[in-house]
Amino acid sequence: MRIGVVTFPGSLDDRDAARAVRVAGGEAVPLWHGDADLHGVDAVVLPGGFSYGDYLRCGAIARFAPVMEPLADAARGGLPVLGVCNGFQVLCESHLLPGALIRNDHRKFVCRDQPLRVENATTAWTTGYGAGDEIVIPLKNGEGAYVAGERTLDELEGEGRVVVRYVGDNPNGSYRDIAGITNVRGNVVGLMPHPEHAVEPLTGSGTDGLGFFASVLGAVAAP
Amino acid sequence: MARVVVDVMLKPEILDPQGKAVHGALGRLGFDGVASVRQGKRFEIELTGEATPEAVSEIERAAGTLLSNPVIEDFVVRVEP
């Protein structure tokens, strides 16, 4: 199983994402923002960081990177894509996922181990969990407040497309405590917290994040 | 050469934490009578030619594509006299 990890100028967590793929048993394939194709990978991770310095809006410039064109086409065709933090922002800017991420309502950067509830365990990236599972993975962002129109929010809730929700205090002002969502097909998932930082007991808050990467390996093998 | 200005503002229903921070600081500095502050972005775009209707409509397309995110922001395009 070959999982591509895209590096944009300013990406931070591409190495951790690649490591998480390997820990889960996959082969991590580095993809460059200037690549014109996806090198035949079976899935793609858009990692966290500050692509293009977060200039203009988070993810707004990365969205137009050359690699995003084949990626958007492939995502619409069913390729599993996971966007973490800045990667989630890129997916929203690309309109592969609805809504947007704006500055935390309390205006401070937040960095903590974050409890989440898995609401949808049927996406390409969450079959390794059970619906209702509570997991703890790191959250670290300044612009992580998920916003969308009421109609979009109702649609997401009604169609079961809220993938993970914050448990306890809402850390950033996200509407309806939404931490991550998916597209209609369930192959594209974006979330603000960082599963790739919680895949080994030696570092991070535990191994609760490993399921995202294990899930896609199963999803890629299964169809 | 013509100059086109694009103003981008968060939609009224979207919370603006930066504007709120500026509002708070204004109050602490003694600038009373400010009910609220919304912070936006202004792009000053120099065209290589004249501001023909075609050129302005291209800038409008750019404003809706890259300069603003229509999910959370509104924009206004105007030609500088």
**Shape field of chain A:** globular
**Count of DSSP H/I helices of chain B:** 2
Structural class assignment of chain A: alpha/beta
Number of helices of chain A: 5
Count of β-strands of chain A: 11
Number of domains of chain B: 1
Kindly state the percentage of residues in helix of chain A: 10-25%
| Low-pLDDT runs of chain B | none
Largest interface: A-B, 21 and 12 residues
Tell me the name of the CATH class of chain A.
Alpha Beta
CA radius of gyration of chain A? 15 Å
Number of separate structural domains of chain A:
1
Separation of termini of chain A?
A: 13 Å
SSE blueprint:
The complex is a heterodimer of chains A (223) and B (81).
Chain A: E1 2-7, H1 14-23, E2 27-32, E3 43-46, H2 68-76, E4 81-84, H3 86-93, E5 100-102, E6 110-118, E7 134-141, E8 145-147, H4 150-158, E9 162-166, E10 178-182, E11 188-191, H5 210-221
Chain B: E1 3-10, H1 17-28, E2 41-46, H2 53-67, E3 73-79
Antiparallel strand pairs in B: 1-2, 1-3
What does this structure look like?
- The complex is a heterodimer of chains A (223) and B (81).
- Chain A is of the alpha/beta class.
- Chain A has one domain: Rossmann fold (3-Layer(aba) Sandwich), CATH 3.40.50.880.
- Chain A has helices at residues 14-23, 68-76, 86-93, 150-158, 210-221; strands spanning 2-7, 27-32, 43-46, 81-84, 100-102, 110-118, 134-141, 145-147, 162-166, 178-182, 188-191.
- In chain A, strand 10 and strand 11 form a beta hairpin.
- Chain B has one domain (3-79): Phosphoribosylformylglycinamidine synthase subunit PurS (Mth169, Chain: A, 2-Layer Sandwich).
- Chain B is elongated and about 45 Å long.
- The chains are: A alpha/beta (223), B alpha+beta (81).
